[in-house]
Amino acid sequence: MIAIVTDSTAYLTKNEAKELGVRMVPMSYTVSGHLFNESFADQNGNYERLIFRNLQRCTTAQAPISAFMSVFEELLRHNYEVFCIVISSRLSGTYSSASVAAKEVHKGKIIVVDSLTTAGGLAMLVRKARKLADEGYSLKEMTQIIEDSRDKVGIAFSVDNMDALRRSGRLGIVRQSVGTILNIRPILLCEDGAVVAYGTARGRSEQIKELIARIPRNVKRVIVHNLGEKINLDFLITAIKRKFPSINVGRRKLGPVLGIHLGPGVIGVSWMTE
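Structure (tokenized):
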């Protein structure tokens, strides 16, 4: 039997994780000196108000080695092999933590994969991994298929301003002048596991149009993301369904860890192609 392990930035709900048989290792964040563990997507309380009122006093931390070791050891005791897929190594040190833990516990029965993505992109790869495990693929076969599938996953998003991203240090090559002056917002991509700039959009309507334009024609699933009380996803979802009437469109609010790095006013799309 193969168990699936991921980190909290996949933003699965508690019921989704239970239904999929997925174990989640939490990342953590600190607000004004108070430490919190990020939980399932529907178990984080009123975190938006907490972090956005104290954004300059917020920090995040990768999931620790000890947390992965504890989960891995428990699963091995129950005779599972473990397929672990986590947030991009270019966005967090969580992949390193999981890899060290796997070597310490039992390298042969645990494989750790760098998803090169996060949020909805990570969630879709987790679901694919679960499907492969249920169909009887071996750890080695799953690893090859999931690593190949990373090229089929994409994320495009936009933020109201760049301050949180600049502070986080998670930016690739992004024009530092991009902001909300003249209602101009950046269009950003998660490419090869890193955040890079694609362009800009003026106003919410053009912003949504540019995000949808990034979704490939052969898409089979889309998850839309938001963060911030002023962001309404209904218009974005309607526009996606109008362009891709046959696909499944889910919605998922980002959690506190990514929220601290992105700030309020996030809107985005994750997708997987055929």
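The longest strand covers residues 194-202. The two ends are 27 Å apart (CA to CA).
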